[in-house]
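Predict structure. Chain length: 281.
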Amino acid sequence: MNKIGMIDEWYPVGLFSQLDPNGRDTWLMGEPIRVAIDGEGNPLVTGGNGRVLAVCVRYGHVWASLGKPDHDLFPIPEADQPGRRLVEVGVVRVRCSPLRAVENFLDIAHFPFVHTDILGSEPHTEVQNYKVEIREEEDEVWATQVKFYQPQAAKSASGGITTEYMYRVPAPTCSVLYKTCPPRPSEWDVITLFVQPLFEDVCDVWPWMALYDDDTPMTDLIHFQQTIFLQDRSILENQIPTLLPLDPGMEIPTRADLTSVAYRRWLKRHNYTYGAQLVAQ
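Prediction complete.
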């Protein structure tokens, strides 16, 4: 278990709207923590030994770090755009590596088989060419020019469309997805996956969205996204090996795995190895 490379990163530990003065007990990278609210209404996160952790609030969530972050939480400018619906989806516990959860979010090849008649369908199974890069200035993984036919790309979509995507990995256990916005074709819908690493093989996943959708009830938006992720959970909990392999020779990638390959290379470069398997066993 090596969490040194990830100790100074920010991690989601709860919804700000659900903070309780009595506190909520949870875990962060194997350490017991308590998430509460102080007398002035500010979040308070303490470690197992009572030490106060670094904390911030953004995108409706409380974020904490076991170390000493030397950077602010990554920006999502769309979160501040007027007219967007900010959707707190809640939390889903998954018995898998937190890095596996992010990698699965980056994979579009499984759409027709796992999210049949929603995000994909047969015979539309081909993954077209797309571009992947590690942007050095931002130090982030990006995949662009991703296109895929989807029967129902969003709750607001009235029929099948070819959806364009951009994937972004700004932190080891977080991913941001930009996708075609049916009501406003000139804008992007934003869907995120914020992953709290409880242990190397168990995580809490906190999806969050920033959408242009004035018609769909909030409950339906939440249920739509929960349905998608619950379909993924059964796949995630049965992956072998449980931890994410970082050795290029341990799994054979295809063209559809370009983003995964870049993500693994980026993790290895930064020693982000909590939840990873470094050598074949």
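Summary: The first strand starts at residue 11 and ends at 15.
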